Amino acid sequence: MDIVLGIFVLAGIVAAVMAFLDSGLPWRGGPPPGEAGIRAAVPTFRVVALGLPGSGKTLLLASMYNELQTPSRQSYYLSAAEGDVARLTGWFAQMADTTRADQWPRGTFTSETRHFSFGVRARAGDTVHEVLRLDLLEYAGELLTDAAETDSGRRTELFDQVRSAHALLGIIDGGRIRQHLDGDPQGWTELHRTLNILVPHLIGASCPVSFVVTKWDLLAHLHQDENTRLALVRDLLMSNEHFRTLVRLHSDRRVVRLIPVSAVGPGFASVDASGHVVKNRSAQARPAYVDVPLSAVVPDLFDQAEMGLDATLRAALREEARHHLWRAPLERLRTAAMLTFQTSGRALLHALGSPAAAVAGDVLMGMFLDSRAMIAGLGRPGAGAQAGEAERRIDEFVRVRRQVLQDMRAKPAMLEGRLPSSRLPER
Amino acid sequence: MDAHGWPKTTDVHGWPFLIARGHRAGYRTLLAPAPLLAVGDHTVLADHVEPGAVPDRPGVIALTTPSGRPISVVHATRQVSAADLGQADAPRDEHGRPLHLLYGFVCLHARTVTPDEADLRTALTTALTVYRTFLANENGFATEAAKPFPLRSTLEPAAPERHRAVARIAVAAVVLAVLLAGLRWVGVPDEPSPPGPAPTVPADTKPCPPGWG
Ligand SMILES: Nc1nc2c(ncn2[C@@H]2O[C@H](COP(=O)(O)OP(=O)(O)O)[C@@H](O)[C@H]2O)c(=O)[nH]1
């Protein structure tokens, strides 16, 4: 009898511990200072690009990686597993090779569904810090469209990912827009089909949503001024009732972007008489804006969360961000954790939406406070002469993280400055 | 055949399959073994058979269907050539990409398969016939039920059963150890318990280290 009672007690304790761990509560007991603390502060943000087959997802991914694999235009760069690097560089090389005008990477099979996990890294002196991770799902667009294989486990996997994403990208095939403008009715039909398939997935999302117009190079002839060109595309999309509704519903409380991208760049390819995209022999790939969609993910997530708070809570968090800067590195980690229990902190985590719970609350809070202080243009003192090695390392990590967040924010900001029509609806 | 219409485990037939896309229509299973198609188990092929990097080189994979049937799949990948379709130019999809076939044959029971090239060629011939029919009417095409053909490949019964049994026993032993450690931790059997039947411990599991339970 005692044994049976013991089993029940034990099962109860195990269940309670599991439930506690599952609850996603931010408190995890403070990690030890130094390296362990830094490693525990690397969150993963999941991104899903929703697009039909052939819309340009694979080449965007390859081109984006090619652009961000070195810190040439920003402080950070992307690292990936060896196998993934081989795949991504293989796709890019095949795309960029103009000796074969019609050679493009083949379409993605359903079984090739794969998570590309990128480490966002930056260097400080001799040390490379991984600041955050971005997880992108590569899949066959057929999973969104083909009703014939509804029982596919891959489809379930895709929709699970969509539900738990920190950011969603709606991929709109610029080639279809071109087709429509060239007078081919298939273009309009496919554009509508795309929006009718994508919008229902995006409309209920609590995370930031951006639309990405791929194959931007194919629309160069639309107007010589790039912003006017984008405005024309925006108006075309807004003529779809579902798209219009989505933008109206989302834009009062969150950022909705319209990002034009070209995986190959201007003049690299053209459309031949049979409607196929073919490479121009003497051209060189010069991708355009491919780094923006991914770089905007974390800044947009934070902005959206802040926009969702009332003025008092917003002010409280800004005040906290100011104090945050002046605390010692270890103290900053601790107060970020404590803030998650206070009204403003809880409201922020709530506003970040349910998927954000997958990232430890204290980590998110620390990043958020840093990013707010950065926007407010607040400077920050160093760790101080008396600080120990662990504190100095954490201080350096936090500095690098701030720089990365700043550079990430700069990319969509630069796009908005250049192409105001990239914000929906235009301000 | 068994009660579900599946051949006996000693069956030495292969069932061709084909996964491919058309000029417009996206990737889908165009040809699948009739017994899998009948119960919707064919989705396991598109979900898990990955294309290979070397044209027509066979790969073998063991899978379990959604309804729990073990199967072995011999598969290969091939870029569709102009000659495959009897036309002048290599075919492309509407975006200008090359077309690829993921084809091969399925053995309806878990086996260790050493594929014979002749079997893969037979599967390819069937796959190409089906593919041409599909290209002629992409929208109206419904997945075809494949018929079996006698295999030349060497098949040996897979031996995962014993491994599975050992794994099950190991898991049971770990659970038992955790329970005993837990009971000790909550302090339940502080006094010696009355003698009971001795627990059965599988012969090939290691005893717990001293001080456990
Ligand atoms: N001109 C141009 N064509 C592109 C671009 N991106 C993709 N394409 C074309 O669209 C096709 C499909 O792209 P892909 O990335 O494979 O689409 P996915 O099925 O969504 O992954 C490619 O083979 C190219 O022909 C681009 O940026 N510019």
Quickly list its features.
heterodimer, A: 427 residues, alpha/beta, Rossmann fold, 2 domains, two-stranded antiparallel sheet, 17 helices, 10 strands, globular, B: 213 residues, alpha+beta, 7-stranded mixed β-sheet, two-stranded antiparallel ribbon, 5 helices, 9 strands, elongated, disordered C terminus, binds guanosine-5'-diphosphate
Question: How would you portray this structure in words?
Answer:
The complex is a heterodimer of chains A (427) and B (213). Chain A folds into 2 domains: 3-40 and 303-412, no CATH class; 44-293, Rossmann fold. Chain A is 51% helix and 14% strand. By secondary structure, chain A is of the alpha/beta class. Chain A has helices at residues 2-22, 35-40, 57-68, 82-96, 142-145, 153-163, 174-181, 185-203, 226-238, 241-251, 292-295, 297-307, 311-326, 329-339, 343-351, 361-375, 389-418, and strands at residues 44-50, 76-79, 114-124, 127-138, 167-172, 209-213, 256-260, 269-271, 277-279, 423-424. In chain A, the strands form 2 sheets. An 8-stranded mixed beta sheet of chain A has the order 2-3-4-1-5-6-7-10, with helices on both faces. Chain A is built from 17 helices and 10 strands. The model of chain A is unreliable at 8-33 (pLDDT under 50). Chain A starts with a helix and ends with a strand. Chain B is of the alpha+beta class. Chain B has a domain at 13-158. Chain B is built from 5 helices and 9 strands, in the order E-E-H-H-E-E-H-E-E-H-E-E-E-H. Chain B has helices at residues 34-38, 43-48, 82-85, 117-136, 160-185, and strands spanning 13-20, 28-33, 59-64, 70-79, 100-107, 111-114, 144-146, 149-150, 154-157. In chain B, the strands form 2 sheets. In chain B, strands 1, 2, 3, 4, 5, 7 and 8 form a 7-stranded mixed beta sheet that branches. In chain B, strands 6-9 form a two-stranded antiparallel sheet. The longest helix of chain B is centred in the last third of the chain and has 26 residues, at 160-185. Chain B is elongated. Mean pLDDT of chain B is 80; it is low at 188-213. The interface between A and B is large, with 37 and 35 residues. The structure holds guanosine-5'-diphosphate (GDP). Guanosine-5'-diphosphate (GDP) sits between chains A (51, 53-59, 104-105, 107-108, 141, 214-215, 217-218, 262-264, 269, 277) and B (95-97). Chain B: The chain crosses the membrane at residues 165-186. Chain B: Keywords: Membrane, Transmembrane, Transmembrane helix. Chain B: Residues 191-213 are annotated as: Disordered.
